[in-house]
Amino acid sequence: MKPADLLWRLRRRWYIAIPGLLLAVATVAGVWNAVGPEYERAGTQMLLPGPASLPEGATNPFLFLGGLSIPADVIVQSVSGENVQGAVLDRFPGSEVVVDRGAGSAPVVRITVTTGDDESAAELLATMMDRTVTTLEQIQNSENIPDRDRMSLITLAVDTESTLRQRTRTVAAAGAGVAVAVVALALAALVDGLAKRRRRGVTADEPAAEGPQRQTSPDSDAELEEQ
Known about the structure:
5 strands; 5-stranded antiparallel sheet; 227 residues; alpha+beta
């Protein structure tokens, strides 16, 4: 169907198309208010070696971070597990936590949380950063690692304000509005097409008009009577 034909059909069935578009606008507003925005915060922690791992006389552990990438990966996997995050997220329904490694080779653990309000984002981030510390402690306790050999986590940065994210809200509202609009316009075009097909059927069923009858002249009638 050509675009011009479609527009003409929608114009003829404006009483379906216009209310459908108004319903689509109302749907967008309703979904926008129902979904709500998301608040995101992030924090980073760095893994440091134990005192016994440093050379004799060394006082700066930041100079000896090599080899800690693998332990940092272990922490990320442990904190990302359901046994750790599940208990935390039960207190924050609808929230999301992502734990991964920071960019580069440094043993950095990055935690990103997303919730429905700013206060919950701050509380959830603080809780998860505490969980990384306790998880590392539990792992080392299970292996009976001496205190001098134990690694530790320090906080590098924590967001003090949340970042407002509207992507999920926008996608949900736009998707619902487009779906309603498409259905309404398709219905208008379908109704017009069915009406047009019905009119064609009625026209085809009408009897054909009778052709003109042969006219006879008076002279020809007289000739027939004489015969």
